[in-house]
Amino acid sequence: MARHVIAPVDEMPPGTRKFLEIDGRPIAVFNIKGEYFGLMNRCPHQGAALCEGPLIGLAQSKDPGEIEYTKLGEIIRCPWHGWEFDIRTGQSYCDPRRFRVKAYPAHVEPGASVVKGPYVAETIPVKVESDYVVVEL
Fold first, then answer.
1. How far apart are CA 77 and CA 74, in angstroms?
2. Strand order across the 17-22 sheet
3. Bridge partners of residue 37, in order along the sequence
4. HSE on the CB side for 137, CA within 13 Å?
């Protein structure tokens, strides 16, 4: 699995999101209260740009007339049809047996560990001998 640099930590404060495309896949990375999560930016319902929807919370009820609002800022609402997904897991609360967006792990690493790319070009030794550049293959 190749690693990709998303952004410096100070460019993604809590409550922000960043959109990007990796290997042709539209991805969004979120900073939720200092934790990072990635989602495929495509609603599994009809393909809307899911992560462009508003961040909301989850309304839950144990008893009629009692509503508890939890997970504030951790639920994304699809801008087309209002379907809601948990950013931490990709889980939908519309029909949890059928719909789920792809969730990607995201975390913070020291910059020095991600600066180098995954590929290394083959090098060829070059020497200077008696005013001539010499390559040995």
1. 10
2. 17-22, 25-32, 35-40, 103-105
3. 30, 105
4. 1
Tokens of 41: 């930016």
pTM of the model: 0.70
Q: Using CA atoms, how far apart are residues 75 and 33, in angstroms rounded to an integer? A: 13
75-94 pLDDT tens trace: 999 999 888 889 988 888 76
DSSP state of 133: E
* Cα 97 to Cα 70: distance, rounded to the nearest angstrom: 21
Q: Are 45 and 78 in contact (CB under 8 A)?
A: yes
d(CA 131, CA 8): 46
Query: Count of H helices and E strands in the chain?
Result: 1, 9
